[in-house]
Amino acid sequence: MSRASRGLTPDQVAALAPSCDAPVFDAEVFRAVGAFVVRNLFPAETLAAWQAAWAEFQSNTLAARKVGFNKVAVEEPLPQVLATMYESPQHRAVAQAMFGPDVGLYNHRFVIKDQFSRDPVFLHQDYCYHLGFPEKASFFTPLSVCGRENGGLEFFLGTHQYGYLGDAGEIDPEAFPAWPSILPELNPGDLVVMDSSTWHRSGPHLGGPDRILADTIIQPASDPSTVAMVCGENGPVNRIDRSAAAGLFKRSRTTRMKELTAELSRLQGGSD
Q1: pLDDT tens per residue, the chain (272 residues)?
Q2: Full DSSP string of 211-262
Q3: 259 occurs within a structural domain
Q4: Rounded to an integer, what distance in angstroms lies between the CA atom of residue 69 and that of residue 197?
Q5: Which residues contact 60 (CB under 8 A, 6 or more apart)?
Q6: For residues 164 and 106, what is the distance between their CA atoms, to the nearest angstrom?
Q7: Residue 30 C-alpha from the chain's centroid
Q8: β-pairing, 199-202 with 103-113?
Q9: Is 109:212 a contact under the CB 8 Å cutoff?
Q10: Which domain holds residue 92?
Q11: 264 φ, ψ to 5°?
Q12: Domain count for the chain
């Protein structure tokens, strides 16, 4: 998924924007703008099976779901039919168009806006939260309509060209040139492909149905953070133990922040 050697300007990206929403995935356009909407990709019977599994899961398990730091992320274990959505022939075909015959899985989850998570999500990129190499992309597979009214995703095209910005958090778009954005109205059966460095955000859920999106992060299978194969046979020779990721460093920015927070709490507690 190599990027253009010199990159594109905002105006050049804006000229390509209409081409990133089509019935057939175009890897060249995707690499240029950092996101692509594939329309009506999945057959009706596949979609019906996913939606039926989701309806049962939502009714039986999510009525009182756990809500963690990231409110939109579903933390409960997924039923098998939903946990393996990325194994569909359609997902695999797009994945191989991006990364070749051997594609690995970094993560698969659902990000939803329901009664527990109506708030907006600030402008950010995913790459800064990942392990392994930067060549990653997300598949967003909607099982509901997803648009402006119910907290749909907005993508800032071309911003993947900046790569890692040096920190994680809310990006200030005023610090950069004005990049074009799209907020596609998605229907079940569509697929959004997003470079993991592309900036994106979502607005509040203002009305309509719950926003239901599967979020599958894929990468070349050789990446040491691969946890399963999407397609192909040649996985990584060396692997990062994702279960022990917090213990990979003796000291880090994260541990230092925890120490400073604990010290600040101690000082504030004794200030009276």
Answers
A1: 555 556 899 999 999 999 999 999 999 999 999 999 999 999 999 999 999 999 999 999 998 888 888 889 999 999 999 999 999 999 999 999 999 999 999 999 999 999 899 999 999 999 988 999 999 999 999 999 999 999 999 999 999 999 999 889 999 999 999 999 999 999 999 999 999 999 999 999 999 999 999 999 999 999 999 999 999 998 998 988 877 666 788 888 888 888 899 888 888 875 54
A2: EEEEEEEEEETTSTT--EEEESS---SS---GGGGGGS-SS-HHHHHHHHHH
A3: no
A4: 22
A5: none
A6: 18
A7: 15
A8: unpaired
A9: no
A10: 10-237
A11: -60, -45
A12: 1
- pTM for the whole structure: 0.91
Q: How far apart are CA 9 and CA 167, in angstroms?
A: 23
Query: At which residue do the structure tokens 């953070």 appear?
Result: 225
The answer to whether the CB of 203 falls within 8 A of the CB of 147 is: no
Determine what percent of the chain falls in helix, strand and coil, rounding each to the nearest 5: 35, 25, 45
Q: What is the CATH number of the domain that holds 82?
A: 2.60.120.620
Q: How many CB atoms lie within 10 A of CB 32?
A: 22
Reading the block at residue 80, the tokens are 């098998």
Residue 169 covered by a domain = yes
Count the neighbouring beta carbons within 10 Å of the beta carbon of residue 212. Answer: 24
Residue 246 lies in a domain: no
CA-CA distance, 39 to 242, in Å (whole number)? Answer: 34
Burial (CB count <10 Å: 0-12, 13-18, 19+), residue 172: exposed
